[in-house]
Amino acid sequence: NHDGQSNLNRSQxxxxxVSLNFSLSQEGPVVTTHxxxxxxxxxxxNASASEPVMRSYHFDSDMNDESINDxxxxxxxxxxxxxxxxxxxxxxxxxxxYAKALNQSLPISGSVNEGISFQxxxxxxxxxxxxxKSVKVGYCGHNHVNDFCVLYNGIQLCYEGSPGxxxxxxxxxxxxxxxxELREWGRQIVTWKRLDDANSTVINHxxx
Length: 208
Known about the structure:
The protein is α/β, with parallel strands linked by helices.
């Protein structure tokens, strides 16, 4: 959400990311005034497989009223239509459903150390995830000292953790990063967090 606040605009930032060695990022087909970088990655069991065993959908979310807008939701509905391939979704700004899950006191794994900073207008991307029946988990960032997962209406909603030291944190809350592993060719999603402490401690190992 800070991408356009320096000497490059959001489009130029995305162009740079795409140009990096080993980058899998794409600008994607949905380009609006504020949105660059909506794309799909597909995972195959082997080099000769014709059908992917897993997909990941990547959304460029920002700090406008709609962090994920109508055009992005329409894109997702179009590309996911009829697909039963298990999928993950990645976006920076948390969805309002993270807050709804906490308000219902649903069980979580991990920590809640600050409020959920969702945007005021919900364009319906979570409802689109539900309708697709393929999205198993969504991952966000933005709130640096939240790192929980919660199951909400059949979809796991997770924070990625904040590993970098260039932004705010919380005294006593060790920097951390979430690791996600696909097992059984996409039929199982396993995740944990690794702490930046003396032992690189692993916490909250779970199957999503």
